[in-house]
Amino acid sequence: HLTGREAVLRAGLAAAGPGDLDALAGSLCFHQVGTVGATFTASHGAIGTTATIAAQLGGGPLPLTDLRVLPAASDQVPGRTQLVLQGTDGAGRSLFVLVVWPSSQASPGSIDLGGTGVDANVFILPAGGGPAEALYFLDGTLTLDQAAPVAGAPWRGSNGPSSSRLATSQGARGRRAACR
User: Fold this and answer.
1) pTM (2 d.p.)
2) What gap in Å lies between CA 111 and CA 81, rounded to an integer?
3) d(CA 36, CA 139)
4) Helix (H) and strand (E) counts for the chain?
5) β-strand partners of 134
6) Which of 12 and 129 is assigned the larger pLDDT?
């Protein structure tokens, strides 16, 4: 499931010019560091508060409160839909799940979060804002029971923690056995 992201990374690496890749110092590996499961109900283009997020990070649960969900047209790329889930942990940090995919696929069914044309990431922002403390890739399946890329359309869906893994990438120099 991370193969879609791997293909994009490999294409970018193949297109790099001389010296462009020196900073990478080895191949990239994806290491699982946790899971995220969520359920949500909202209307397209409106912030909803009917959501659950179950996150595990670094072997332990990451309890979240003040949950919000927003399915909407992407504000970055025309023709794409985004789903944003947000919660706050006990230290005041914000966890954002951001999934962006072609609007033509914004309908009931399953979306492969590691598939071509799908961007699925989790960001953790410090209390009070600022640059992200952490960025993870989200893998697995998003199931949409109701969805349409139309303002006000009802959205309902989920992704199970058993099928949605958080991964981080890092250079593999000296750790090639861990990448297999």
Assistant:
1) 0.75
2) 12
3) 9
4) 1, 12
5) 124
6) 129
